[in-house]
């Protein structure tokens, strides 16, 4: 069963860059929680802590794609390591400002500087795509396994990072979580960028590389779909916390939410052991998104029982629909974005997810404040349904483009005149 992973990591250099990437990726789940706990503990204001965290999220949405574009243009080692040094400086500044009671505006500025943290998951996926870049069955299966592994790694980091941050900040001193995250980020990035043999080469300047990724119209529906998926995550988190709080069991909310990430990680690891199904990737993405939407109904049903244990089981099962959607969607992005813009395209995907998480948290928070706790669980399946509808629109568009291209090809083979004009829609 583990044979696909054994073959994957038999490639020279892959184990080393994976270790570095995991170390550098773990702080993503540490920094946000650490900042909230650190600021709320020392300044006595969750409002300030939330505002600083939100500012960092906005900064990531703006700076992240720009950093990724520079990585595509100049290479991972030349850009990612300096960007990491800037982010680490921001983390150290944030910890120092909290420790020495600096004005509130310095917290916002320091946290915004941390937005230069490179998208380590995207860079790792770009390396796998470069190592297994042919269309052979072996390389296609290897890319599928690699994307599945990366999705499971994402879930494990997001699942283990927040509890570790909370433990460090509460048991040692408030700044310990941020400082630990900075050390892990720098150490991991030094290891990762040191593996030059697996680094994708910088593509020569082409029209594909010069045009911004958002001008690639095929990418926009995918980003909308990932925005909806992020909304599922954000709203589900808030709904679960509110549900536990109403029952006086807020301390258990973290463990219940971890079940969702565990289910996704399990599904991701299993997905990597089986060969990718045949057929167009866009259709697989639509099917996976549809299955995720159906599974998102389980937490709603479980919430009506009033039991956190039943909800935990429902989240575990519902989480298993996340990884196939994310893995297939990432594969679709890799096939949509030109190779010279791959890091940027995958960073836009992360930006869309983060935007969805923020939107879902806002909607879920409003529902928690104004509606019964169970009602909050209606938001995740609604968002998942929108994700599935958008994914279906991607399929419709791909079929339409395929027929259009076929019509053009047939038209070129015919004599000029009526037959050629009939093959091309009016207005072209």
TrEMBL record:
Keywords linked to the UniProt accession: Membrane, Transmembrane, Transmembrane helix
Short name of any one Pfam family annotated for the protein: MFS_1
Positions of the region Disordered? 406-428
Segments spanning the bilayer are: 22-40, 46-67, 79-102, 177-197, 218-244, 250-272, 284-302, 308-333, 345-367, 379-400
**Entries under InterPro entries matching the protein:** MFS (IPR011701), MFS_trans_sf (IPR036259)
Which GO molecular function annotation, any one, does this entry have? Answer: transmembrane transporter activity
What this protein is called in its record is: Transporter
| Species annotation | Streptomyces nanshensis
């Amino acid at each position: 069963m583990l044979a696909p992973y054994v073959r994957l990591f038999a490639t020279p250099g892959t184990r080393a860059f994976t270790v570095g990437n995991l170390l550098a990726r773990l702080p993503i789940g540490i920094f946000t929680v650490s900042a909230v706990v650190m600021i709320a503990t020392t300044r006595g204001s969750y409002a300030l802590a939330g505002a600083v965290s939100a500012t960092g999220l906005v900064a990531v949405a703006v700076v992240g794609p720009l950093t990724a574009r520079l990585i595509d243009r100049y290479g991972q080692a030349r850009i990612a390591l300096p960007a990491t040094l800037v982010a680490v400086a921001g983390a150290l500044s944030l910890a120092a400002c909290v420790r020495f009671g600096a004005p509130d505006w310095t917290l916002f500025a320091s946290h915004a500087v941390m937005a230069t943290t490179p998208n380590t998951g995207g860079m790792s996926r770009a390396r796998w795509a470069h190592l297994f870049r042919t269309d052979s069955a072996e390389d296609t299966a290897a890319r599928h396994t690699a994307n599945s592994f990366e999705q499971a790694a994402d879930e494990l980091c997001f699942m283990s990072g927040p509890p570790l941050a909370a433990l460090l900040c509460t048991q040692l001193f408030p700044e310990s979580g941020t400082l630990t995250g900075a050390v892990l980020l720098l150490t991991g990035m030094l290891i990762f960028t040191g593996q030059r043999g697996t680094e994708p080469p910088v593509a020569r300047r082409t029209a594909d590389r010069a045009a911004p990724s958002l001008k690639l119209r095929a990418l926009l529906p995918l980003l909308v779909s990932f925005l909806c998926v992020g909304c599922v995550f954000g709203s589900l988190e808030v709904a679960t916390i509110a549900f536990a709080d109403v029952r006086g069991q807020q301390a258990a909310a973290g463990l219940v939410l971890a079940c969702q990430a565990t289910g996704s990680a399990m599904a991701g690891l299993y997905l990597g052991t089986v060969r990718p199904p045949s057929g167009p990737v866009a259709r697989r993405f639509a099917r996976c998104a549809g299955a995720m939407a159906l599974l998102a109904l389980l937490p709603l049903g479980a919430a009506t029982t009033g039991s956190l244990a039943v909800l935990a089981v429902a989240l575990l099962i519902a989480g298993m629909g996340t990884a196939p959607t994310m893995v297939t969607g990432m594969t679709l992005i890799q096939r949509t974005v030109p190779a010279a813009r791959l890091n940027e395209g995958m960073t836009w995907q992360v930006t869309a997810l983060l935007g969805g998480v923020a939107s879902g948290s806002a909607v879920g928070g409003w529902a928690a404040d104004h509606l019964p706790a169970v009602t909050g669980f209606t938001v995740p399946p609604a968002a998942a349904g929108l994700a599935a509808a958008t994914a279906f629109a991607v399929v419709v568009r791909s079929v339409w483009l395929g027929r259009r291209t076929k019509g053009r090809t047939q038209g070129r083979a015919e004599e000029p005149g009526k037959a050629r004009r009939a093959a091309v829609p009016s207005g072209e």
